[in-house]
Amino acid sequence: MSYHPRIECQDVASFQTTRARNSELWFVNNQKLEEAILGYAARYSTRYEVKLYALAIEGNHIQKVAHFPRANRAHFMRDFNSAVARSVARYQSNYPGGTFWARRYSAEYLPGDADIEDRFFYTVLQPVNDGLVDDILDYPGYNCFEDAITGKERECKVIRWKEYNDARRWNPLVSIEEFTEICALRYERLPGYENLSQTEYEALMRNKLKERTAEVLKLRVDRVSLGAHRLLKIVPGSRPKKTKRSGPRDHRPRVLSKDPERRSAARAWYFSTYFEYRSCSRRYRDGDLSVKFPKGTYKPPLFTVAFCGSIA
User: Could you give the domains of the chain?
Assistant: First the structure.
């Protein structure tokens, strides 16, 4: 399953997760890094016209619930993850360098409105699910819930570092403010609630949050949360005692849905596209450059080999 392609789909939202190498906790207790990540989320979601529903910056991973109407998830994730990796190296003084992410991001489809809502609350309640706090209000890091349900745009500063560093070569006194832009981080309202007023929507979401928080706490009744005080003592770059681990060949669901019909239909679409892609890919690599690939897939790279004669 892990080697199946990530097919683009402009009609269906998806849930993405990217984890740091060795599950190291680099996204903790660093406000500048957090602000930089939010800034890049704002910049690239605007650039690629992404409908962002939720964003979680956990200790060693970042998760998003998003819809890509322009079928450009790969481009968004490439730019966003690259920018985050550079930001860690820039703002974490003890970062040793090297590849930051453990592997490529995982992405699962959310075929229905209820599936998007389920994954929204899963993302929002990550600190509670992981036993960090009992209430998201106690979590010392960023939580997207308030931004998402109020519909307010968060103004984020994004520094154009390349232009700034190029300018400093000629003028060491150049101001960084000249290369700082303001980007708006905006979350979409969950689908299915378009007819509610803003006040009604907020009240409903807060009630749902209370209910789902109670459900999570009931499941982890024997686990005591770390609490904000202990979380603030975590050293960036350290490794957690326990973390979710999966290998490159471990099974990962392609579709996240509790409804068997939606799940079955989405899987049928995915695998039919996948098998068509595999056939086209084989023909393409065999030399048929005119082959037409199925919608939402990318052509594999072609490798050119130069044969040189022996030197006399």
Answer: 13-243+252-257 (3.30.70.1290), 259-304 (no CATH)
